[in-house]
Structures are given as structure tokens and as C-alpha cells.
Amino acid sequence: MDANEYEAMQEKIELLNDVQTSLNQIENGLGLDHEDAMKIILERVLK
């Protein structure tokens, strides 16, 4: 395995960990629905 393959593997692992964290947060009621997320983002962008 060369350095590029190793780096790609590490990035995939990090992404999978982020996805798992997100799924856990949603499962525990900590997620936002699309409409609320868009409202928050637009408020920040339009300031």
C-alpha cells in the first residue's frame, strides 16, 4: 500500500465515522429538518 492509498483509506474512515456520528445524533433527536437547517444557513449567509 502506498502513501496515496493509505491517505484515501484514512479519508474514507473519517467520512464513515462522521456519517455514524450523524446517524447517532439523528437517532437521539439531535438532528434538524431540512427547512430549519436552510433557515439557519440563510440567516448566516445574508448577514
Beta-strand proportion: under 5%
Main sheet properties: none
The assembly state of the depicted protein chains is single chain
**Annotation field: number of helices:** 2
Please describe what this structure looks like.
By secondary structure, the protein is mainly α. It has one domain. 79% of the residues lie in helices and 0% in strands. The protein contains 2 helices and no strands. It has helices at residues 3-27, 34-45. The protein is elongated. The model has no long low-confidence stretch (mean pLDDT 95).
SSE layout and pairings?
Layout: H1 3-27, H2 34-45
List keywords for this structure.
47 residues; mainly alpha; 79% helix
Task: Give a brief rundown of this model.
The protein is an all-alpha fold and 47 residues long.
